[in-house]
Design goal:
Shape: globular
Protein name: CopA family copper resistance protein
Distance between the termini: 32 Å
GO molecular function, one term: oxidoreductase activity
Structural class: mainly beta
InterPro entries: Cu-oxidase_2nd, Cu-oxidase_C, Cu-oxidase_fam, Cu_oxidase_CS, Cu_oxidase_Cu_BS, Cupredoxin, CuRO_3_CopA
Organism: Marinobacter manganoxydans MnI7-9
Order of helices and strands: EEEEEEEEEHEEEEEEEEEEHE
Strand order of the largest sheet: 11-10-13-18-15-16
Oligomer: single chain
Pfam families: Cu-oxidase, Cu-oxidase_2
């Protein structure tokens, strides 16, 4: 099952492609076999260019890439679901009607004990009791992978991982070590990591957060119940923020699925350990068994949604209301042009 689109180019042109994951529940691994892609924007914000062979795009994320084709040949744009259950594809070609080979789907990834770590009580965990039945019902496209709540990215020394080409980095630090979901490029080349992203021009002055709020991503696959800190949206109090503060959010994924977390109205500053160069996003993907941090400059008064962007998860309770108190009469902070405020609504 696939969808197909054709895009015509002139050989030698530099082509900018914007990928938008508008699905309800599916992560995609995107590549253009035979072409290197240069990532230049993430979620509408410019980043320092990163050359990659493949990247994973979560629900509601966007990536802009630049490619250059010098030959008069067609190339396949291949977006393979993370669970390998299907794909979407397009064609870049110098003239209409040309096609290129469509890759075969790769084998579906299998979750490991590392992916299940946050889902269990380690003190009582009996590995012999982990039957295949206990792992049933997992949706590999939005993929469930337990949590390793002790994995703290802020202490992982991202700044010492080497250059933005990431060639010396054997594993993606935004996945649990040994995770079955650890991405690898089909050609053995470079797969984009959040750790590669650096803001091109920081939007906000870097400063210490005023406080930290922990959000445990919780749920039950068998009952298909999803929540934050074990409480569904309808039973939860709003999260109250004060206009002008900088808040640090700590996501601890205690489920076996990857959750794309989306804050409306304000940008999410993803902590990759690069200080003022940390990238701005509006969706932060949190893999099973990981802890991920983001910070927010609270610059938009009012009430805002904060939720997992997997549609069924949001609908079943992984959702919070954010209330921003205080602020000027206008919706723009003094001294800040309107173009700098907030993220997607």
């Amino acid at each position: 099952m696939f969808q197909k689109s054709d895009f015509v180019f002139e050989p030698g042109e530099r082509i900018r492609l914007r990928f938008i994951n508008s699905s309800a529940m599916t992560y995609f691994d995107v590549r253009i076999p035979g072409l290197e892609m240069t990532v230049v924007q993430a979620d509408g914000n410019n980043v320092q260019p990163v050359n990659v062979d493949e990247f994973r795009i979560g629900v509601a994320e966007t990536y802009d890439v630049i490619v250059r084709i010098t030959d008069r040949k067609a190339c396949t744009i291949f977006a393979e679901s993370m669970g390998r259950s299907g794909f979407a594809r397009g064609t870049l070609a110098p003239e209409e009607g040309m096609t290129a080979e469509v890759p075969e789907l790769r084998e579906a990834p299998l979750l490991t004990m590392a992916d299940m770590a946050g889902h269990m009580d380690h003190g009582d965990m009996n590995h012999g009791d982990m039957s295949k039945d206990a792992m049933g019902g997992m949706n590999d496209d939005g993929m469930d992978s337990g949590e390793m709540a002790g994995m703290d990215h802020s202490a992982m020394g991202h700044g010492s991982m080497g250059g933005s080409d990431g060639a010396s980095m054997p594993e993606d630090p935004f996945y649990a070590s040994g995770s079955g979901l650890m991405p690898t490029a089909s050609n053995g080349g470079k797969f984009l990591s959040y750790a590669d992203l650096r803001a091109q021009n920081p939007l906000y002055e870097h400063r210490e957060p005023t406080r930290e709020i922990e959000l445990r991503l919780t749920g039950n696959m068998e009952r298909y119940e999803w929540s934050i800190n074990g409480i569904k949206y309808e039973d939860a109090d709003p999260i109250v923020l004060q206009y002008g503060e900088r808040v640090r959010f700590k996501f601890v994924n205690e489920t076996m699925m990857t959750h794309p977390m989306h804050l409306h109205g304000m940008w999410s500053i993803l902590d990759v350990g690069e200080g003022k160069w940390n990238p701005l996003k509006h969706v932060i993907s949190v893999a099973p068994a990981t802890t991920v941090y983001m910070e927010t400059e609270v610059d938009a008064p009012g009430e805002w949604a904060f939720h997992c962007h997997l549609s069924y998860h949001a609908a079943s309770g992984m959702f919070r209301k954010i209330v921003v108190e205080g602020g000027p009469d206008s919706t723009v902070a003094e001294g800040k042009p309107s173009g700098t405020q907030g993220g997607e609504s």
